[in-house]
Amino acid sequence: MSSHVEKDDQQNALAKHHRGMAPPKYDSSNRYKIQKYLVASEAITWNQVKSEDVTITTHSTLSKLHHLPALVERWNAPVSVSVLTDDVPTLLSTIANLRRCFPPIKQYASFHVVMPANTRDNTGESDETELKVPCSMVLDLTENLADLNMTKLDAYYPSSLLLNVAVVESTTDYIFALDIDMVPSGELEQSFKAFMTRREEDQYMNNPTVFIVPDFDLHDDYVSMAPKYKSELLGLLKENYVKPSVSFIDYNQWREFKSTSSLYLEVAFEMKGQNPWQAFFIASRNIPKFDEAIHSVNNSDINSVRSCHICELHVAGYQFGVMDSAFVLHKGFKKTNNLERSMELNQMHLKKYGVKLRELYPQSPRSCT
What we know:
- By secondary structure, this protein is an alpha/beta fold.
- The chain is 37% helix and 18% strand.
- It has helices spanning 4-19, 42-45, 68-75, 88-101, 103-108, 135-143, 159-168, 188-198, 203-206, 230-238, 251-256, 303-315, 336-360; strands at 25-26, 32-39, 54-61, 79-84, 109-116, 174-177, 182-184, 209-212, 215-218, 242-244, 267-271, 281-284, 319-323, 328-331.
- It has a 10-stranded mixed β-sheet with strand order 1-2-5-4-3-6-12-8-13-11. Strands 7-14-9-10 form a 4-stranded mixed β-sheet.
- Helix 3 (68-75) links the parallel strand 3 and strand 4.
């Protein structure tokens, strides 16, 4: 459960949102400013979010926001989005477009903005002419927006900071940490809530656990027809329109696992975290945060950030329960050269991070290799 202090902070931030925008706060490095609840969802505004709901927490740049409708429409539950930009007026106009043209975004998505520290305070401005864009053009327009040039800033993409902001500003007990260009399986939020209700006496309730949701890459030709159910996914897998992502998950075991019920979600098996790679999971919002000293090359390559986080969870004593029929899909197949570079960076970061984790958890018998 969330602490009383965190809940009070969120309620204060929301109250200030209704009265007028609260001033932004600086991150621990003083390189970025954070504006919480730049735009709050209707569900948040009208106090319709329940603690037992599950919030997708994700990160984005301006141009990546064109992925948001597919994510929110499939999830149909709270979504917390952190956006990196120095152009807040354009972000506000883009959010207004998305909310106008895609009602689930207006209902469920809350937006927070992370800005370079020297960004002018213009959170109350927007270009009203953008609101006249036909809905048929909104996604193309959004995809072609100019993103913040991190090279000119001599900075890395602050993925850990963005992920943490999205998690901290969620208001539910559980979060689902995803990238914005992903699509979850159908009815997953409802299925997970039912799973938690049934599993109150389960070993995964009595021990700290993150619930791993296997991730796959989906061929571009099928992005608009993303499968909802495991049976559909397995059919596309046989035809090579879906590929398992690189992960520490045993995909063969997941594929062959025979569920005891077609109606209920359950843990198929447990994975060990000593050889981590990025993974996507549902977990308590109070799990250890992403280490903000670890950065990404860009917003499409945060494997090392996620791998180091999985490593910390392992060292901290968490279990990893792989869900039997849940999955998430990346849009498009990964390029081989990008994957090889990601694996090199992953090993480099894990080696350095292992030293830090021995200092943070000196009594832990666990380590990552």
